[in-house]
Amino acid sequence: MWTLDTPLYINCLLTLNLKTGVTSNTRYETQLNESYRELAEYYGTAIVPTRVRKPQDKGLVERSVGFSTTWITAALRERKFFSFAEVRDAVAERLEFINTKSFQKRPGSRREAYISEEKEFMLPLPKHPYEPSVWKQQTVGNDYLISDGLNKYSVPFDLIGERVQIRLTKDLVEVYFKGSRMTSHKRLEKYSVQPVVKPEHMPSNHREYLSCNADEFKAWAETVGNSTEEVVKHFLTSGSIPEQGYKACVSLIKLGKRYGKKKLETACERVLAFSSTPSIRTITTLLKNSKESEKTVADSDNSNKYGITRGAAYWKKGGAGK
């Protein structure tokens, strides 16, 4: 093995106290690499690392290494190989010889000992081989998205601001929070401009515009007026993709329902007169100010409508000539 990178070493079952597999191994506590621990759990076994610089803890392994050197490496030292496949076949041939060779001090062979003493205790292999994974931690942003380093994926929106654990495999992205799996996504192989978002992860107000499309927004704007059409066009073209303007378009529709299409068109016309980059905030401010102005004028009219009216009792008492 030329490297001990996680994706490679995890495919081999190692009994050494390897640093990439054992994070910490003191006299009080053993802490395994998360991927190494997963591998053991997946195959129904346990990892018990040997002590550092204590070869006697793995004496059987050390003897097996010496035995293999004598009966395999030494036996093949004079042969020339021209491919890895040739080496593999030659080693398999020598291994078969070792396993069927009779013991010197006891009856039977290594294969017979395995079948009669060990095989019944072996667990069946899982249906699918273990898939190596990498773990990382992230804090969920206000957009309720996490990243695998290339693309973004959604998590339930109530995890905003929380620290989550992310498990990455070749084909899967899993998100955990406090030990529980919250969601999973099929991992994308290539970069995507749009994040992978599940509707159930979105707040209710965000789901409202999920089923909308640019043509529907444009068609609605035509029923309002030219200025509203210009504003909607700006929202749909100001971002990298039209979908980035959907939220603003939905907000504009809500303003139309609240204040009426005529007032909305007037507000859009006013904002376009002094800005080439209209925003929902500016349009909302104009509509609110317009409503307050109308209320002020109405209150003023009501206060002066009967300003010079005198009641009958006033005139019976002599009125102004009294």
Q: Provide the residue-averaged pLDDT.
A: 84
The portion of residues forming beta strands comes to: 5-15%
Shape: elongated
> Biggest sheet: strands side by side, in what order?
3-6-7-8
The largest β sheet comes out as: 4 strands, antiparallel
- The arrangement of helices and strands along the chain is HEEHHHHEEEEEEHHHHHHH
Helix content: 40-55%
Point out poorly predicted stretches: 8-14
Number of strands: 8
- By secondary-structure content and strand pairing, the structural class works out as alpha+beta
Number of helices: 12
How many domains make up the 3D coordinates? 3
For the record, give the distance between the C-alpha atoms at the N and C termini, rounded to a whole number: 119 Å
What radius of gyration results from the CA coordinates?
38 Å
Written description of the protein model:
The chain has 322 residues and is of the alpha+beta class. It has three domains: 6-121, no CATH class; 134-202, no CATH class; 214-302, no CATH class. 43% of the residues lie in helices and 12% in strands. It contains twelve helices and eight strands. The protein has helices at 6-9, 34-42, 59-73, 84-100, 110-118, 204-207, 214-222, 226-237, 246-259, 261-274, 280-304, 312-316, and strands spanning 22-25, 30-32, 134-139, 145-147, 152-154, 163-168, 172-177, 180-186. The chain has a four-stranded antiparallel β-sheet, with no helix packed on it. A two-stranded antiparallel sheet has the order 1-2. The longest helix has 25 residues, at 280-304. The chain is elongated. This is Transposase for insertion sequence element IS21-like C-terminal domain-containing protein. Residues 125-190 form the Transposase for insertion sequence element IS21-like C-terminal domain. Pfam families: Mu-transpos_C_2.
